[in-house]
Amino acid sequence: MLKPGTRVTVLIKELTDKGDGIAYLEGRPLYVAGALVNERAIVMLTQIKPNFMQGKLEQLIASDPQRQADFCIYQACGGCQLRVLGYQAQLALKQQLLIDVLHTHQLACPVASTLGMAEPFHYRNKAQYAVRPGAQIGFYAKLSHQLIDIKECVVQAPITSLVVAQLKLWMQTETVSAYNELTEQGCVRHIMIRNGINSGQVMVVLVVNELLTEHERASLLLALQNIVGLTSVMLNINKAKGNRVLGDTTHLLWGKSEIIDSLAGLKFAISAQSFYQINPKQTEALYQEALRLAAPQPQDIAFDLYCGIGTISLFLAPRVGQVYGIEVVAEAIVDAKKNAQLNGLSNLEFYTGKAEQVVPTLYSQGIKADLVIVDPPRKGCDTTLLATLVAMQPSRLVYVSCNPKSLARDLEWLTHQGFTLEQATPVDMFPHTMHVEAVVLLTWQGRK
Q: What is residue 45's three-state secondary structure?
């Protein structure tokens, strides 16, 4: 009988969406972190449930030829699930994942090679660290609430490690307490760092449970004074229970309330609360691919749905006649309007509200798009919105997705209503993870 501690030899058949290997034992899936497809391994069982088992990889008998040495010393961190798989193999895997999910929904179209990075490290422009007693600053271990104290993360911008080191020293020197989740006492809860990859500007946001004293504020600024590019130091107040990082109130301690970064020559103002793509280099690749597929024309009326702070809208504006951006988050629309002004673009209108409500209203007013770009959250698009797009019949619909499963579901619905699937391109926004971004072009052919 199988029990925890038993060692078994298994063949890894596939990967989960979290990057764990899956073998099958006695008709049940056995999940093995760190194992790759087609690898034969000796695994020690750690957990046995009626419907699944967990195991620890102990020895590889036959390994994937694309396996590489682990580049991270923090193996308990679940952030980079594919770090032992060579980067070119990661790109091929992500292309295949998109092909497979489209095939599951009987969708046929060319799937291009994954657009990857020349240097897939230090790509993140935003870092969020949890802080716990003992001046522990880091990330939570995979599938747990156990904090891993991290000195350096190779996917974060290098400036991040310097900021964290200075803040840790400041907390220890000034005896500033860390927040204790059990007692709900203590001061510092999180640290958020945003940096402009192209501008070099840095924002540090200290998230606290209680206000700092005047001396602590002064010493904090002194501790950060040698950070190159420091532009903004913010204090965010969060007294709420739970794991929410930012509270509703943010104070400017020093510098400016925003940093500026650029993408493809466009400037973007980024506040503490702004949504801004985590990987700017790949964001450019993603949006340039979206524009290539969209083939915008000077006379086009374009809709940018789920527009956020207007990133795609600003990419579109110089190439089309008019852009309508729609976003449910009011603060993002404020940022979008500000970004349009910052770049001297006037052929944009932004609306606050749900796309499934605003688009039907605009359509009923006679505003019809020639080109639509949608970039929805992971759950995909609302069917009311999709139905309005079918009624509107734009000649081109570009779907940008962060979730292949909801993407395929929506594409299946759209193709049954008169759209034709032309091309899909996976984009590697988060190297070394299982995350797959995709850009898909559909054209209107009409109901058959």
A: strand
Among residues 80, 187, 381, 402, the one annotated as catalytic is 402
Q: Is 248 annotated as a binding residue?
A: no
- Tokens found for residue 441: 């072009």
∠ Cα 41 92 291 (to 5°):
150
The answer to the question of whether 327 is labelled as a binding residue is yes
Contact between 370 and 394 under an 8 Å Cβ cutoff? The reply is yes
pLDDT along the chain (448 residues), means of 10: 92 93 94 95 95 95 95 88 95 96 95 97 95 91 87 93 96 94 92 94 96 95 96 95 88 95 92 89 95 97 95 96 95 93 96 94 94 96 94 96 96 95 97 96 85
- Judge whether 393 is annotated as a binding position: no
Rounded to whole angstroms, the Cα distance separating 108 from 101 reads 11
Question: Does the annotation mark 187 as catalytic?
Answer: no
Whether the model clears a pTM of 0.90, i.e. scores above it, the answer is yes
The number of beta carbons lying within 10 Å of the beta carbon of residue 265 is: 9
Does the annotation flag 375 for ligand binding? yes
Task: Please give the domain boundaries of the chain with CATH numbers for all domains.
Answer: 7-65 (2.40.50.140), 88-118+279-444 (3.40.50.150), 126-263 (2.40.50.1070)
Quick one: tokens of 396? 């081109």
